[in-house]
Amino acid sequence: MRGKASFRLTILLLIGLFMVGCGRRLVGQPINEDNIPKIAVGKTTREEILKLFGTPYQIEARGDQQVLTYLYGTTSSWTVIVYTETQDKADILTIFIDQKGIVSNYVFSKGVSSPDIYRRPGPPGY
């Protein structure tokens, strides 16, 4: 019995030695999900959105609308010998603001695969 325990311990130590590069990287800020039900299409203003969620990760113009994107993403990776696995997950809140400064639509996705655009370090310029 003592030999089996010693063998198992040796195997576990060897596995521990070969595991390298475990890491986690965060992008953006956590999204306050409690505030999402407070968004009313056709009523909530851009200023109210900024009060509810803070500064967006990205702001862009699409046609005659402004799109505010809130992102909270994680990248986890680990390596064993030469094999590396990476997993990207994100919570993304996208809010569409019309020309009058009113929410015309919004979409919230939780735990989805991160789009490549969000994998770069730091927020893009506004």
Descriptive report:
It contains 2 helices and 5 strands; from the N terminus they run H-E-H-E-E-E-E. By secondary structure, the protein is of the alpha+beta class. Strands 1, 2, 3, 4 and 5 form a 5-stranded antiparallel sheet that branches. The longest helix is centred in the first third of the chain and has 17 residues, at 2-18. The chain is elongated, with a radius of gyration of 22 Å.
Q: Main β-sheet, in a few words?
A: 5 strands, antiparallel
The N- to C-terminal Cα distance equals 65 Å
Indicate the mean pLDDT.
80
Oligomer: single chain
Q: Which descriptor suits the 3D outline?
A: elongated
Question: Can I get a quick summary?
Answer:
It contains 2 helices and 5 strands; from the N terminus they run H-E-H-E-E-E-E. It has 126 residues and is of the alpha+beta class. The chain has one domain: 2-Layer Sandwich (Beta-lactamase Inhibitory Protein, Chain:B, domain 1).
